[in-house]
Amino acid sequence: MIRNKNILDLSEYEAEIELKILAKELKDADKDYHELNDPKISDAEYDRLKVRNKEIEDLFPHLKLINSPSDQIGSTVSNAFAKVVHEVKMMSLSNAFSEDDIVSFDERLKKYLNMSGSQNLEYTAEPKIDGLSLSIRYEDGRLVLASTRGDGSVGENVTENAKTIAEIPHTLMNAPKLLEVRGEVYIGHKDFNDLNARQVSAGAKVFANPRNAAAGSLRQLDPLITKKRPLRFFAYSWGSISEQFASSQYSAISKLAEFGFSTNPLTETFQKVEDLIKYYEKIEKQRASLDYDIDGIVYKVNNLETQRRLGFRTTTPRWAIAHKFAAEKAWTQILSIEIQIGRTGALSPVARLLPVTVGGVVVSNATLHNEDYISGFDNVGKPIRDGKDIRIGDWVQIYRAGDVIPKISNVDHSKREEKSERFEFPTVCPECGSAALREVGDAVRRCSGGLICPAQAIERLKHFVSRKALDIEGLGAKQIEMFFNDLDLSIREPADIFTIQERDETNPVKLKDRLGWGEKSAANLFEAINSKKEIDFAVLLFSLGIRHVGETAAKLLAAHYLTWNNFITSMERVRNSKTDELEKLLSIDGVGNVMVHSLVEAFSPGPQRTSIERLVKQLSIKDFPVHEVSDSPIANKIIVFTGKLERMSRDEAKVSAEQLGAKVAGSVSSNTDLVVAGPGAGSKAKKATELGVEIINEDDWLSLVEKR
Are residues 610 and 647 in the same domain? Predict the structure, then answer.
């Protein structure tokens, strides 16, 4: 079955099919959980399905469905209840499943906020209650509306039912004129057991777990039935408010308690990630003794102004994360270690395992990341797994948690055979025999063969025709593999795609006459290819698959150079050591030395440059569109931010400037129009002064952009 395959082994066709299957399964699971209060799968299995869906989307971003489960919150509301539109969307939380995930979360936020690694963000930590989300609206201190989360935008009106819950006050004293309190409805373990005993005595249905009982009880059509159920409520957040009533998450929770709500007494604040982990471990040990179900810990940035600055993604707040409790682990044996080659030449080791069931899923592969990981060290030389290396024949402990690709958490050296040998990571590419090199500072070893390596060539071609690149209908990964090995209609580089119809016309055996093809499908393919001969500059640059030049970087470069010819001319000047041109390239915010090196390498004389030139001859490249913002005082100006901004993060400033039609550069040059300097501005401010570039402070900048 596709489901049992490591996603690294999925073909594009299999990935497309599985994403559709997962979307259906997750939609059904959401309905069972949120609408019918009768889940058919466990929370852990639901998490596995959702993360597998996300991991497949990350590996095949062009296959992401319009109605992807990754973009969904909850489920549609039942027609049995009146609908309530949430003024402030009720979002879900992104999940973490390991300490590394929490470290990465903290690092991402600090980077967004332009904080140094030595600075600490303060977080609140609280148990994640396994219940039903509820929003309660108070106007002038009176409860006027209560609604379920629903799909995050529209919920169900359960006002009369909510009024029967003893821990939900009907009136508030000294509260804001408008206050929408959010929290979790749940049933305690003792109350749940008593409820089920009463159900048995009455000959009624027994509830599977407290969460189902709570959800089913709150969503009764008759409030009198709800009143008989032992529902409880923890308040932990808020939605619409008429005025701010606290400056931090923790003080806001304390204020909710003053208003009369029950809040979780286990909520604490911490400033270091290691303390968050200790709290997680402490609560995990207490889990069985708590009178309510929890499935993890929620961490939130404590400062509310910082929360505002961090903002939201599509379905989740950027400033919060749920650290889920560990899932099942299992021991199995490594049968072999295989090396796979990616489009950038990365050698990725994969362990082939004696199949074992982990969390209800048969696992036969596990990622080994890189050669350091196999040796028992991380990318900075620190021991992992107590420094235990991994060898073929070893017995290893596998875990999945929320990860789709299973990972190894431990190695049992006591079962290792005496004749066992350390795994020697290859120094030559197993596909083409070229040297496999590891650059200083890079955790990955890469094949140096470039386009002569068939593994790299075919992966680059797959990338070239992927959805976010050329997106040629009828020419996916499966067809690329077929044409790559075809003697008569071979596709070995992107330019070959655009000559395939011409070659087919002179070929004795036409494509339409081949197995799996027909006259219509062949004609459709040729038509689809021809329709892609006119291409956007940014799309072409991304489709080339140049290392470190992803979709965002391609758009940055295209927005700077505007035309393909401008870009090529610049690459020539940079390659020929023209300092001024290099400075201009490095001045693009988001472009650094690593990306420049990749660009120069790709456009230097050689097989890759020649391949690109053959491709360009087949295409008509459209200039990058320029959108004028006529009423903006900074439209078309080049702005540089330097020093520490105190009222917004660098990322925030950049986004606001670009929305007003400006270009944000990373360094000062004679082309710079304006430098915004905060405290600590150094060499950039000095250079601006030398060049006579206008310099303003953050307050002046905010005044300028607010004039629009």
Answer: no
The one-letter amino acid at 494:
P
Instruction: Specify the higher pLDDT residue, 550 or 380.
Output: 550
Residue 428 lies in a domain: no
State the pLDDT at residue 582: 86
28-37, 81-90, 264-273: segment of lowest average pLDDT: 28-37
**Mean pLDDT within 630-636:** 75
Q: Is the pLDDT of residue 548 over 90?
A: no
CATH number at residue 555: 1.10.150.20
Q: How confident is the model at residue 3 (pLDDT cuts 50, 70, 90)?
A: low
Mean predicted confidence (pLDDT) in 332-342: 93
Domain that holds residue 660: 638-705
CA distance 465 to 458: 11
- Kindly state the helix (H) or strand (E) to which residue 183 belongs, with its residue range: strand 178-186
Cα gap 317→360, rounded to integer Å: 31
Cα torsion 56, 59, 64, 68: sign: positive
**Cβ-contact 669, 579 below 8 angstroms:** no
Q: Is 128 a catalytic residue?
A: yes
Q: Inform me whether the pLDDT recorded for 541 exceeds 90.
A: yes
Q: Using one digit for the tens of pLDDT, what is the confidence trace for 189-210? A: 889 889 988 988 888 888 878 8
Domain edge (last residue) among 324, 339, 354? 324
Angle between helices 454-464 and 477-484 (to 10 degrees): 140
What's the pLDDT band for 267 if we cut at 50, 70, 90?
Answer: very high
Task: Say if CB 125 and CB 270 are below 8 A apart.
Answer: yes
Catalytic residue among 50, 54, 64, 128: 128
The mean pLDDT value for 120-148 works out to: 94
Domains contained in the chain, number: 6
- Last-in-domain residue among 400, 415, 430: 415
In DSSP notation, 533-593 reads SEEEHHHHHHHTT-TT--HHHHHHHHHHH-SHHHHHHHHHHHHTT-HHHHHHHHHBTT--H
- pLDDT (0 to 100) of residue 239: 94
Given a contact cutoff of 8 angstroms between Cβ atoms, the answer to whether 639 and 662 are in contact is: yes
Burial 65-85 (b: 16+ CB within 10 A, else e): eeebbbebbbbbbbeebeebe
Classify the C-alpha dihedral 652-653-657-663 as positive or negative: negative
Query: What whole-number distance in Å separates Cα of residue 163 and Cα of residue 124?
Result: 29
Looking at residue 1, its pLDDT comes to: 43
d(CA 149, CA 73): 9
* DSSP, res 166: T
Average pLDDT taken over every residue of the chain: 87
Three-state helix/strand/coil letters over 74-119:
CCCCCCCCCEEECCCCCCCCCEECCHHHHHHHHHHHHHHCCCCCCC
What whole-number distance in Å separates Cα of residue 502 and Cα of residue 533? 14
Task: Evaluate if residue 360 carries a pLDDT over 60.
Answer: no
What mean pLDDT is predicted for residues 93-101?
89
Do 71 and 19 touch, CB atoms closer than 8 A?
A: no
Q: What is the DSSP string of 311-324?
A: -B-SSSBTTEEEEE
Tell me the residue type at 346: A
CB 230 within 8 A of CB 195: yes
Cβ contacts of 690 within 8 Å, gap of 6 or more: none
User: 355 with 474, same domain?
Assistant: no
Give the angle 700-702-705 at the CA atoms, nearest 5°: 110
Same-domain pairing of 315 and 272: yes
Residues 6 or more apart whose Cβ sits within 8 Å of residue 167: 232, 233, 261, 262
pTM, full prediction:
0.50
Checking DSSP bridges between strand 123-129 and strand 268-270, what pairing results, if any? antiparallel
The whole-number pLDDT of residue 403 equals: 44
